Amino acid sequence: MSSTQPPQGFTPTGTIASPVDRRRVVFATVVGTTVEWYDFFIYATAVGLVFGQLFFAPLGENSAVVAFATVGVSFLFRPLGAFLAGHFGDKYGRKVVLMWTLILMGASTALIGVLPTYEAIGIAAPILLVLLRILQGISAGGEWGGAVLMAVEHAPRTRRGAFGASPQIGVPLGLLLASGVMALMAMIAPGDAFLVWGWRVPFLLSFVLILVGYYVRRRVEESPVFTELAARKEKAKTPIVTLFRKHALLVFIAALVFAGNNAVGYMTTGGYIQGYSTNPEGPLALERGPVLWAVAGSAVTWLLSTLAAGFVSDRIGRRTTYIIGWILQLAGVFLLFPLVNTGNIWLLFAGLAILTIGLGFTYGPQAALYSELFPASIRFSGVSISYAIGAILGGAFAPTIATWLVKETGSTMSVTWYLAGMTLIGLVATLLLRDRSGIPLGPDHEAEQNISPIYGMAKA
After folding, report:
1. What's the pLDDT score for residue 460?
2. pLDDT at 361
3. What is the pLDDT of residue 185?
């Protein structure tokens, strides 16, 4: 064990001594991830409402399926973002990576807001749209791991779940903001005006949000665990190689945990429910505005359940919290479409709200769970790559699959069984993992951290 002392200002357990600094970290992770996910979800919301018509109109009845596929394309590039962010985050720090992911996401989103449509520039329009979506995917792949580690590695040992929930609520907050802004623009620019210019305003707003996020993140100190690693010169030279050589199976199982949540969550964050319920040729043909407000309302229940799950996981452990969450999520899956298909906007909201309770309990503890699975020197790579792979296996093409299933079967029941299957996969993956709540996260405890948390496995 090294005799080098931790940097001044940090306790021996690797947490910030000042409560003011802790609050600053929580605030910065919430603001930063909210801005990132607003950018990411505003695209998915627009896909469900206008992109099929504006960028893929020549494809006719297949335009919606192809438009939703562009949501999934970005997920294929999340691992690239995760690999890059994991490598540089484990070598040069969490903070610098978070600054660059924020800028990349914001610039890509703002450029979509000024992109000409197919009618104006032909095939170049959807090509440029997909390229910008790919850049969003690279940014999203690197963002989550850094935000999570900044929150959890700053947290007291007994409050990692609560601190880790701060970047997690960036997802429902981003969805709330994206849906709310889109709903507002649907009121300001109704009908054809929304197709002409109204949808562009939320994308252009990203430029302002990115300045706010950048300012807030600059004021946050680097993660204490990385600072200690750097002081001891114990940073991994090839963190990704080490990760897959020692922990490949763990990465896959952790990815399946997230896939079970992500596939279900992308019914709203991927824009599927919005597109399904407002399609003028569909069975419901509801107005855009009320549906967007219903989605925004469900984002509030998602936020509250995510926060609650983080706190609960500090009391009863990550694994137990997850198991409760999978049961709640499964119930929400079977209630979702029966309520949505009534065509009543209040029952649609009820279906989404019930679903988000389970989603929150299978998402709130994830930051702490992932951080406690991997050793300090390769932790950024481990959490980022597991998250990115889970996103591909889960939400990447969930809206596309749902659209195809309804088209082929003529019934949303097929989508329900698909989502139920993904939920059960997440449950099984969770049962394969030991609970490591409270395990020391600092570099002094790498030997303990390297013991595999998978049942039946010895040292990695």
Report:
1. 46
2. 97
3. 92
With beta carbons less than 8 A apart as the criterion, state whether 139 and 97 touch.
no
CA–CA gap between residue 443 and residue 132 (Å, rounded): 38
Closest CA to 134 of 115, 109, 163, 169: 109
**Domain span at 314:** 19-449
Q: With a cut of 50, list the residues of the chain below it in pLDDT.
A: 1-17, 460
Q: What is the number of domains present in the chain?
A: 1
**Residue 181 belongs to a domain:** yes
pLDDT at 10: 40
CATH of the domain at 110: 1.20.1250.20
pTM, two decimals, is 0.81
Rounded CA-CA distance 72/90 in Å is 28
Predicted confidence at residue 396, as pLDDT, reads: 79
What's the token pair of residue 76? 């294929």
Residue 14 included in any domain = no
458 within domain boundaries:
no
For the chain, how long is the longest CA-to-CA vector? 70
Asked if the structure places residue 454 within a domain, the reply is: no
pLDDT at 458: 60
